[in-house]
Amino acid sequence: MVKRKLNPVQVSLDEVASTSLKAHTTKASSKSEKLKPKAVIPSQAKNGKEQKEILKEVKSSAPRRSTRKANMKKVDEEPMDEHSKDEKSDEQSEDDSVLGTEEDEDAEVDGDSDETSEDEEEASDEEDDDDSKSDSDSDAEKSSEVDDEGIENDNPFEFSDMNEAISQKVEAPHPNPVNGNEYEEDSSDEEDIRNTVGNVPLNWYDEYPHIGYDLDGRKLIRPKQEDKLDEFLRRMEDPNFWRTVKDLQTGQNVVLSDKDLEFVKRIQSGKIPDANFENFAPWIDWFSSDVLDTPLRSMPPSKTSFLPSKIDKMKISKMVHAIKMGWMKPKPKPSTEPNFYMLWDSDDKSDEMRRVHDHIPAPKVRLPNNAESYNPPAEYLFDEKEMKDWESKDDEPWKRRYNFIPQKYKSLREVPAYDNYTKERFQRCLDLYICPRAKKMRLTIKAEDLVPQLPNPKDLQPFPTICSMIFKGHSQMVRSITLEPHGQFFASGSEDGTVKVWEIATGRCMKTFEFGCVIRWVEWCPNKSLSLLAVAADSDVMLINPGVGDKLIIEKTDLLLSETLDQGDYHPSERLKGAVQWEPVDEEKWAKGIRILIRHFKNVNQVTWHAKGDYFASVMTDGQNRSVLIHQLSSRRSQLPLNKSKGLIQCVLFHPIRPIFFIATQRHVRVYDLLKQEMIKKLISGAKWISSMSIHPGGDNVIVGTYDKKVMWFDLDLSTKPYQTLRFHGNAVRSVAFHKRYPLFASGSDDCNLIISHGMVYNDLLQNPLIVPVKKLRGHDKFSDFGILSIMFHNMQPWVFSSGADKTIRLYT
Amino acid sequence: MGKMKKKYESGESTQFMTRKQALRKLQLSLKMFRKLCILKGIYPREPKNRKKAQRGATDKKTLYLKKDVQFLLHEPIVWKLREHKVYLRKKGRAKALRDKVALKRVVDNKPMYKLDHIVKERYPTFIDAIRDLDDCLTLSFLFSTFPSLRFVPGSMSRLCRRLTVEFLHYVIESRALRKVFVSIKGYYYQAEIKGQTVTWIVPHNFGFQPQSPDEVDFRIMATFVEFYTTVLGFTNFRLFHSLNICYPPKLLTLRGSEELNATNQLHWDNEDDLVSERVAALNQSLLRSSDAPVEEQVPEMDEFPVTEDASKMEEMKREAERVKRLKNLFGGLKFFLSREVPRESLCFMIRAVGGQVSWDGNLFPGATFDESDDSITHQITDRNLDDKQHVSRYYIQPQWVFDCINARGLLPVDKYFPGAVLPPHLSPFQTEREGDYMPPEKRKFVDMEKGIVAPENAFEFDNEGAEGEQEEEEEDGDEDDMEEEEEDEEDENASDEDELLDEDERTIKELKKQMKVTKGEAEIVDELRKRDDETKEQWRLRTMMIKNKHKRLYRKMMDSRRKRRREADRLASKRLQIEESTSKKSKKTKTKSKVK
């Protein structure tokens, strides 16, 4: 806004100056010559800011003048816009023309202006007086006109005052510039000669006799238009004409004073209008960060600050009254002290209340033991070893015996503070709210209650209890032992390549047969009318006549076996032929006792007789699908019962009564019906490796010993799974055996223990067998991780024989 | 055909909620949830089948019962906690803006909550509250020693102090104290209140030790204490009223403060302070609200039905008698505490078993008589005596008081003289099962109680207090020692043998002992041993037949038994070693003295 206002002023001033300068070139001094309109306009464009400052100065020094200037500009503006504005009022165009003529006339006048200037000045003095008179007259006329126009004013005085004011106003534009300061005559009343219409185009008032309103709202009557002639006359006569400008808003002519001119000149030359303004004065930083001793502005405090506030006083008095009347009370402070009262009505009766579902109370803290005492018995204190143990468990403190180091103090006075006290309490807090809780059933049974109640072994007698005889003679571990069917002798086969026949009653070694290879198995023929002993030596199975016992039987046996049978058109298959061959026995071997020799294609592990004594089976573990062979003594023929390999076959067994054949593979026991030639069932042991098996004389129960320490009792009628698994032994079970008469069975193991158990089988099918271990027999020594290798019962007596890796055979009675 | 069942829609999987789910359900932050759980006594549960409860997830999660969470949902304190959150926010804002007016307004309107209903909820009966008093007392006693900390305002520790002192007063007045124990961690006390045993620990009297924040979170403990103080307050109230004592407690003889000051030679500005200090001194009876006799739990014996086992009855009767004796153990005795002994614990114990006690009035208010009082029978001191001694009293170390209470009888004072090597202080809480190690001191005492050893040597009920008698006692003590040693040896022999034998053969062994009395020949012993071996083997054979299902359990049980036995053996052998070395030393010294 400011700028918009200012620029026109500037322009008007320029205009004025230029016109005046042109008019007074002669009169103007060197100073006036410098004033060139060219220089002004760029300066305006350059520093608008400066211009602002300048105008401020102007305004502050002469507020009235600024208004005048503002008015003036309106007049002077128009010539600038001349070309653009076509729709100008006639008057204005006239003005323009007048101005234009003025300029022309100026130019004409220029030539003699020097001469006339002094005269004009002199004349103007005189004329001023006249003018004033005439003006006042005209004013009076104007006022009357105003009245005529119908503006009713009640107060004639005011009106006259107004008239005076107007007259003064009219006068004001004609102060004598020579006299100096035009403001000397100024009064405060005079200031109000201004138009209050605001910043509106003045041509709005063209139709009216007035051009606006003064401060009091009275109309400002448009001054009388002077015609060209008057103007010309004035130009000619008035020496101040060049410095007279017309205030458009008031319609007055204003004569610029010297000071104004000075301003104009300075502005034109792009200087600060106030000549006294010191542009480069030293800067005083009034509002610095330094705190001054005295205030920068010492404004006196207001009076109200000394006086008590009345409103406050009223408020206070109201409050005082309210307090007096007891209407207003201080807010009670909430008591921080807890308030306790009788929460429970009785000790053990509870109200119906919601509770935690299925509450599990936290277990109480464990109470201290003697070690925690400040003065414990000396044995509770840590010795060096225990201290080391404590220190080694720094990473896993829960493994320590106590969570503190026991200490002993001589007196109570010396007991220090316990460092972990707060920490332990905190741990307890954590336990209470983080630790998951569960109800746990506590076992109240004693360990003893877990042990089954069994009949006293004393009631289950007889069973072998004591080692009554040790048979020594072998120089290597005794692999196998077997009893003569009469129960008088027994034979043993050892790794030293000998088979020895012993008399039980005397303990004598009756005979020794040397074979020069490892004897894996010996088995006496169960037929009492034959004296035959089957020996498995490497890949041979030999039937020997030991030549002990009844001579008749011996001779009869020899006689029987010396006959050579006519095989007729028997042609064994190639498969069988490759596996086994019955070889004729020569004289030398006959003299050794060998009666029949059967050669196998692999090492024979086991030989077992059928109960009748005619058939016997041999096992070659490596024989694959030909690992089991059944031989018939009477016909001297062999059969291959299996067509396919069933795995590593460990041992085989004939059923004592029925034509059933048991084959123990590594994990299972396969039961075959020999007549139907099919598998009846498969006993699943669940063990890793079966070592041996034995069958109850009744034929319905089988025990199986395994290398993984177990002895399994199978009830064939019950299930294919073991009826009971007995873990008696601490090491591999090598041999198991049933007694033929007594309800006893035994198991021998590599841990050198021979365990005799009572195994009662009832005739009642509903009753399960009763198994009670009755005796643990020790005696054999361990020899390169082998203990007992073979066991057997006496057929009549409750005696048990065991052969061990320590080269001995023991008899327990 | 029925509808097909979906997985995890019934059974255990619907009963549990993980903590995260609980937080979502309750719309609480973890901190607030924690606080709520502590206050309400909600804890995670261990499910029977974790995989099912976690709906197939195999990692370990904290599981809460769904019903518990629902229970929390209805708790009014949840809202208070939320309000508290808002309060904190407002307070922080006012503080940040330095708006003091707003700050004051906010602080004045701080949301408060009460835990009364929770106490009632968690402990529906008074007995329940007493049963759960252990942790409450222990933590309150600890907090009563705390200065004002960041999360423990001073008011909290003051309240703890007040409540614990009140509780001690109740124990004194009701003579409920049963067992005491000085541990390296602190003093253990056990009292019997309304038929419930309450055990608490008081730390040794030392200043606060700063704790590292990684190890101890005082915020959690403070939350516990917040609840515990409420419980303890209500419990005290009811306990005091059951004895007709005013609550809050007042001193029985409320004399003018001037007089009090005069006797104590200490000046107290505030009378309230004075009274509370005096209450804390535990040395005066409290004002009773009425003189009506308090319903006491007396003649219990007659009420028992006769059908019970006779020996059990006998045992109970004896126990009751012992307790009765304990209640007035120090009746008529006057104790004076020197300044170096723990005043509060000793005063509490002595008064709880009927003694009178006092101390140096300059030290602490509440002293009732002076050191120069001739009627003092015992002076408890923990220092070597100076020349100034009173002839008419025993000077003893504080352990005597503890041991007397545990023994429920007055022990001879000779072993407890100042400067004497104290007999070991044994835990009264340790109950030895069969086969556990029992220190010889305790074995002797147990035998005495059973009546095996005549109690004349042990108990000394008169206090004529002459030096001559003391000497006699000393001699007696020597004899005791000798006896003890012999006994010990026997014990050890016995225990050595025990190692070899199984427990169920003890009876036979005893039989054997009896047999030993008559002169037997070697054959007979062999016979016995044979039988022994037989039975043993029989047993072993039987154990072989344990079902596979039980074998593991049996082995575990036997292992633990073996472990216990080994532990007992270890201690016994250690003891033997120590005694041997000490006896050697003593012999050496004796010979030296003879040479001299």
TrEMBL record, chain A:
UniProt subcellular location: Nucleus, Nucleolus; Nucleus, Nucleoplasm
Region (Disordered): 21-190
Main location: nucleus
Domain of life: Eukaryota
Stretch forming the signal peptide: none
Alphabetically ordered keywords of this record: Nucleus, Repeat, Ribosome biogenesis, rRNA processing, WD repeat
Function recorded in the entry: Required for maturation of ribosomal RNAs and formation of the large ribosomal subunit.
Name this polypeptide is given: Ribosome biogenesis protein BOP1 homolog
Basic and acidic residues bias: start-end ranges: 47-59, 73-91, 133-145
Compositional bias per record (Acidic residues), positions renumbered to this chain: 92-132
Xref: CDD domains: WD40
The keyword rRNA processing is assigned to this record: yes
TM segment ranges: none
Family: Belongs to the WD repeat BOP1/ERB1 family.
Stretches assigned to the BOP1 N-terminal domain: 205-464
WD repeats: 471-512
TrEMBL record, chain B:
Localization: Nucleus, Nucleolus; Nucleus, Nucleoplasm
Regions of compositional bias (Basic residues) in chain numbering: 584-596
Bias type Basic and acidic residues, positions: 506-538, 556-583
Region listing for Disordered, in residue ranges: 457-538, 550-596
Matching InterPro entries: BRCT_dom (IPR001357), BRCT_dom_sf (IPR036420), PES (IPR010613)
Cited PROSITE patterns: BRCT
Record field: compositional bias (Acidic residues): 459-505
Residue stretches making up the BRCT domain: 325-418
Signal peptide (from-to): none
Keyword terms, alphabetized: Nucleus, Ribosome biogenesis, rRNA processing
Segments crossing the lipid bilayer: none
SMART domains: BRCT
Domain of life: Eukaryota
Primary subcellular site in the record, as a coarse category: nucleus
CDD domains referenced in this protein's UniProt entry, alphabetically: BRCT_pescadillo_like
Function: Required for maturation of ribosomal RNAs and formation of the large ribosomal subunit.
Protein family according to the UniProt entry: Belongs to the pescadillo family.
Protein name: Pescadillo homolog
